[in-house]
Amino acid sequence: MAQDALPTEFDVIVLGTGLPESIVASACARSGLSVLHLDSNDYYGSTWASFHLKSIGEWADEQMKDSNGTDGNPTADFSHHLLPGERLELVHPARRKVIKNVQHSWHVENAPQPPAAEVTEEKTTATVGEPNDSVEQSSTAAVESPTVPQETQSAPTDAKDPQTTTVPSAETAVPRWTRDRVEKDWRRFNLDLAPKVLRARGPMVQILCQSEVSRYAEFKCVDRFLCSGDHGNLHQVPCSRAEIFQTDAIGVMDKRRLMKFLTFAL
Q1: Gap between the Cα atoms of 85 and 96, Å rounded
Q2: What is the pLDDT of residues 200-247, one digit of tens each?
Q3: CA–CA distance from 41 to each of 12, 26, 155, 197 (Å)?
Q4: Rounded to a whole number, what is the distance in angstroms from the first to the last CA of the chain?
Q5: Cβ(146)–Cβ(123) under 8 Å?
Q6: Which pLDDT score is estimated for 11?
Q7: Which end of the chain, C or N, has fewer beta carbons within 10 A?
């Protein structure tokens, strides 16, 4: 019933749901025109879309499949959908394909390495077939000898010095990032096909407000800026008054100059 009530004629037909197409469609609708907004993809945003960690892999696989020429049959018969006096005009995806040469790969290990606790357990249970005396000696040598100094073994235990009896374990080590660990937190990642930053006082903001597409868009302030150092480590770039006076990367004179620049820019 609802499908039969849809209009059959439109003033404007917009293909794609990216930012430029959405601005055009919203501006036309604001001017009183009837707009049909279509997208051949199963997601919104076209080349401006954002994906989480699972969907970005599916999108990359689909793009690589299309680049190999397996994107379906473009010569399918749609004549039964046409009304008298209508004709079909096919728009091949290759004509408007913007993103090309898509590759999807991981640069972290697929599985974590076995912890050191399991290796120690194998050493202590490897002498099960021997007599009881040899089992106790081998297990003691495997566990205590590498960690406790010789002087500590003969000296009495002092309750005031807990460092002499503390044995470091593998559990205190910082866990490494692995593919399994990243995939478990797939909701925490949001990847843009076309990363963009809009200036707060730029002309794009005025266009978004005038076309009223800002009602359907979601904006997020930039949390922080990071720069890579010589050894691959990341440093946060101070962008506020509090961050400037808290950082140790620049001197007092440079902090004052940076504060004057931010005051002038903002």
Answers
A1: 27
A2: 778 888 888 888 887 777 777 778 888 887 776 778 888 888 888 888
A3: 20, 20, 74, 24
A4: 55
A5: no
A6: 95
A7: N
